[in-house]
Automatic annotation (TrEMBL):
GO terms for molecular function: rRNA binding. PROSITE patterns: BRIX (PS50833). Residues 361-388 have a biased composition (Basic and acidic residues). Residues 30-344 form the Brix domain. One of its GO terms (biological process) is rRNA processing. Residues 302-316 have a biased composition (Polar residues). This is rRNA-binding ribosome biosynthesis protein. Residues 1-11 have a biased composition (Basic residues). InterPro entries: Brix, PPAN-like. Residues 1-31, 285-317, 358-442 are annotated as: Disordered. It holds the Pfam family Brix. It comes from Cladophialophora chaetospira.
């Protein structure tokens, strides 16, 4: 049999390390979900869409929620799809909007209350020159976290653990970057998370989403309009070049006497804090094989066998100014609860409820009892499945049919009964009362 040829010239080789599970090389993936589908309202629906676009490209872009879908329907698909993070938007009966950030498959879950938010369309409407979406969403944004650790947390161990947990969860949302391997051109967006300092110890995070744009410095805006490279980057091709036919001198256009000189003066004042020096992008002609052979022969005849690249000169280096344009959405999040598991575990911290040592001990005993009952139920179900398989094998061994796979179906039935027997909404009564007073949806 002929050997199958592997296409290597036009096909990118597959990354074998990414196929092996548990190696820690997989890119984090997320799902942005509206709990209750259309019941949350049109504004929260659009907020979930904007948040989903911000999480591109490693997110479920075409996810469609239904009112009948429950949380276990989404968690059941996180394993096969490789989803590592869940972002759940919900609205409580009192009208409060909550964002729950859960790590799969075992948690923990951070519950934030959305105090204020602004949609992408609102931010674009307020800008004079809004930035249109393009190739920025082909790569993950650069995560910038500010003020997540404070000096006051050194005195309080609970606050220190809370800061460490929150920092670890947010750092795992996007794939890590390597300064040696990550190309600079792939960083086109920035996700800024800034923790606002509060005197009462409230954990508040402001979220901003920006696009990175660059432009040449050293020349005014009117001169840049004649640059061919700037013309190619313009979105609107009509009216790109100015009409100088009605002007007597080019100085009338550069100085703009109609503006009283304010335009030219403001354009010459440059902010050097946001300037960087980069090599000027130049176009090079691609040589064919014959031309490359001819060039190599000429080099060997001249005695120059080493091909050295010309060092960058001052003319090849240009200064470019970096500017951030906000894309949205804009969120102000307040951390209110931390719990184990995916929205159904033991509450480890709550902003509005404080328990005594005896209450915490009773709660630990309750969760330990629930865990032992669950393990005993699992063990009993496994024994029942094995007994059914052995009995079926003994009855059909003479007929030659063997096992027909019904054992797996019975096992699935046992697992579904286990899910029905376990009520994830069964939490401590005092915790529910405290959350109802604060308007938190359990």
């Amino acid at each position: 049999m002929a050997k199958v040829r592997k296409k290597k010239r036009t096909h990118v080789p597959a990354d074998e390390s990414a196929k092996k599970p548990g190696q820690g090389t997989r890119r984090p993936k997320s799902m942005v979900i509206r709990m209750g589908a259309g019941d949350v309202g049109s504004s929260v629906t659009q907020l979930a869409r904007d948040f989903r676009a911000m999480m591109e490209p490693d997110t479920a872009s075409r996810l469609k929620e239904r009112k009948a879908n429950k949380l276990k329907d989404y968690t059941a698909m996180t394993g096969p799809l490789g989803v590592t993070h869940l972002f759940l938007f919900s609205r409580s009966k009192t009208g409060n909007i909550h964002l729950r950030v859960a790590l799969t498959p075992r948690g923990p879950t951070l519950t934030f209350r959305v105090d204020h938010y602004a949609l992408c369309k609102d931010i674009a409407r307020a800008q004079k020159h809004p930035h249109g979406g393009g190739k920025e969403y082909l790569n993950a944004p650069l995560l910038v976290m500010n003020n997540f650790t404070s000096q006051e947390s050194e005195k309080d161990p609970i606050q220190k653990q809370l800061e460490s947990l929150t920092t670890t969860i947010f750092q795992s949302i996007f794939p890590p970057i390597s300064p040696q391997n990550t190309p600079l051109s792939s960083i086109r967006r920035i996700l800024l998370l800034n923790r606002e300092a509060q005197a009462d110890g409230t954990y508040i995070i402001s979220l901003r989403h920006y696009a990175i744009t660059t432009r040449r410095t050293g020349v005014s805006k009117r001169v840049r309009r004649f640059d061919p490279s700037e013309q190619r980057l313009r979105e609107k091709k009509s009216g790109a070049l100015p009409n100088l036919g009605k002007l007597e001198d080019v100085a009338d256009y550069l100085l703009d006497p109609a503006a009283g000189g304010y335009t030219s003066a403001s354009e010459t004042e440059l902010d050097t804090d946001n300037e960087v020096e980069v090599l000027e992008a130049t176009t090079q002609r691609v040589l064919s094989k014959k031309e490359q052979q001819r060039q190599q022969q000429s080099q060997t005849q001249n005695g120059d066998t080493t091909k050295q690249a010309a060092p960058p000169t001052a003319s090849n280096v240009e200064k470019r100014a970096i500017k951030l344009v906000e894309l949205g959405p804009r969120l102000r999040l307040r951390l209110v609860k931390v719990e184990e598991g995916i929205c159904d575990g033991r509450v480890m911290w709550n902003e509005f409820v404080t328990k005594t040592a005896s209450q915490e001990k009773a709660l630990d005993q309750k969760w330990e009892k629930r865990r032992t009952e669950k393990e005993a139920r699992k063990k009993e179900q496994k024994e029942n499945v094995e007994r059914k398989r052995a009995a079926k094998k003994n009855t059909k061994v003479n007929s030659g049919k063997g096992e027909d796979g019904e054992g797996e179906e019975s096992e699935e039935e046992w697992d579904s009964e286990e899910l029905e027997a376990f009520d994830p909404d069964d939490e401590d009564e005092e915790m529910d009362e405290g959350e109802d007073e604060a308007g938190i949806e359990a």
